[in-house]
Structures are given as C-alpha cells and as structure tokens.
Design brief:
The chain is of the alpha+beta class and 263 residues long. The protein has 12 helices and 5 strands.
C-alpha cells in the first residue's frame, strides 16, 4: 500500500516534473511499486527525458536525482534515475532479470510519449525459450557451490564457506524462481520474492535462515537434497555440471556475455 504521506510526496514530484518540457514521462519504481514498502520507504523514480538531456547528463555524470521529501514525512526522500525512452525498449528486448524485475511493476505517473505502457507490458514477459538451458546452468552452479561448501569445511576456510553457502542459496532460489517464471530481483528482495512464489519446497524458507545462521554441514546437505529432489530440473538431459560451471564462471568474459548471477 502507498501511505498517505508518500502519496502526497508523489503528487508533488509528479507536478514538478510535468512542468519540465524535457521530461517526457515519470515512473514510480522501487519498493513502493513492488508493494514491499513500509511507511518510511523512500520514493524511487525513473525519469524519462529527451535524448539530448540524457546525453548531457551522461556526459556530466549526473544521471541520478535526489531530493528531500522531509516536507511530507520524516526521513523521506526521492531517489531517481534519468533514462531515455529507448532504454525501456532495450530492456524489453535484451535486459537481464534484475533490470526487468526493477521495471515490471512500475506505476506510470505521467507519460507524454504514449509508449511507456507498451514497453512495460513487453518487459513483463518471461523468456520461456531459455528455461531449459537456464535450468541446467543454475543446476550446475548448485552442484559447483555444493562442492565448494564441502571443500571449505575440509580446508577449514571460513571465507570460502560463507561465500559458498550464499551461492548455494542463490542458485537454489534461482531454480525456484525460474520454475515459477518469476524474475530474479537481485539480492535485496531475493528472499522476499522467494517467500511470495506459489511453487516451492515447503521446507525451503525454514532451511535458508537456519543455514545462514549455523552454517552446518547437515543443513548444507539438506538444502542441496531438497532442491535436487524437488523435480527433474534437466528433464532427463545428460550434462556435465563441471563443464557448465567452468563455462559460466571462468570463460564468460571471453564471449562478452553477462555473468550468470545476473542473467
């Protein structure tokens, strides 16, 4: 829900940008647009500007916007990004999941282009064609980081253990999000989004905080087994997890591809 003081602040900033001829549209984003906000949440904005103004701001390293909203609530502020309309088209065609998640729930505060809603509708479409390949890639990461968890215990390497457990949880969750056709929201909202998906192992949300807290071998094994037994992620396709792991961790940069955590 949008709290009344946040709504008054949103009304103010909407009118402010409406009067600027170089601002073509204004989008409400962030926790408020996703429904994750509380009464203290800041107001995130995507400010769609003319190409000329965008280039000017890019060249002067002034692509962000900040203004206090303390007139409307204590500690409140506006946090925005200047983008060109073309950015939405690029995200719709080739954006990664965190970027699509960030934009999929935006509220259009005004749109003088008449094109924003169409782009947002396209951004919301989940890429069904990549589900099988991504399942195998994420499953390979699960296998790799499970192996690293065991190595960390064997070598008593606490740093490696902490990293490996986090990655084991990450790729467990990415498999579940993929199964639900839900975009990966990046790390801040990861657990929150996992909580909200309908299809998941019933014990998953109990295991994750327990594992983060105690880092035990037993809970590492339990999480791994819960995800592996949940379904046949590869649909019977034979694959080498070690080859996929190397492909996505060690050589992705050679192909100019995005790091697997962000796809």
């Amino acid at each position: 829900m949008i709290y009344s003081h946040q709504q008054r602040a949103i009304d103010y900033i909407t009118e402010k940008f409406k009067s600027d001829q170089q601002v073509k549209a204004l989008l409400l984003s962030g926790s408020i647009s996703h429904g994750f906000n509380d009464e203290k949440s800041d107001i995130d904005l995507n400010i769609i500007v003319t190409n000329d103004l965008y280039e000017q701001k890019k060249n002067t390293q002034a692509l962000t916007f900040w203004e206090s909203a303390s007139d409307y609530y204590e500690g409140g502020y506006f946090d925005g990004k200047f983008i060109p309309l073309e950015y939405l088209d690029i995200v719709a065609r080739q954006g990664n999941e965190p970027t699509k998640f960030a934009l999929k729930d935006v509220k259009i505060l005004f749109d003088n282009t008449g094109q924003v809603a169409d782009y947002i509708n396209k951004i919301q479409i989940y890429d069904e064609e990549r589900i099988q390949s991504n399942s195998i890639r994420f499953l390979s990461q699960l296998e790799g980081w499970y192996w690293y968890c065991k190595e960390a215990y064997k070598k008593q390497n606490e740093y490696l253990l902490n990293v490996s457990i986090s990655k084991l949880i990450l790729y467990s969750g990415r498999l579940i999000l993929l199964d639900n056709r839900v975009f990966f929201p990046y790390h801040k909202w990861f657990i929150k989004v996992l909580e909200n998906v309908s299809q998941k192992p019933p014990e998953l949300l109990n295991i994750i905080p327990r594992l983060l807290n105690n880092k035990s071998k037993e809970d590492i094994d339990i999480l791994y087994k819960v995800i592996k037994d949940y379904k046949d992620w590869s649909n019977g396709i034979k694959f080498s997890w070690t080859s996929h792991f190397v492909h996505d961790i060690e050589t992705f940069w050679m192909r100019g591809e995005e790091f697997i955590e962000n796809i």
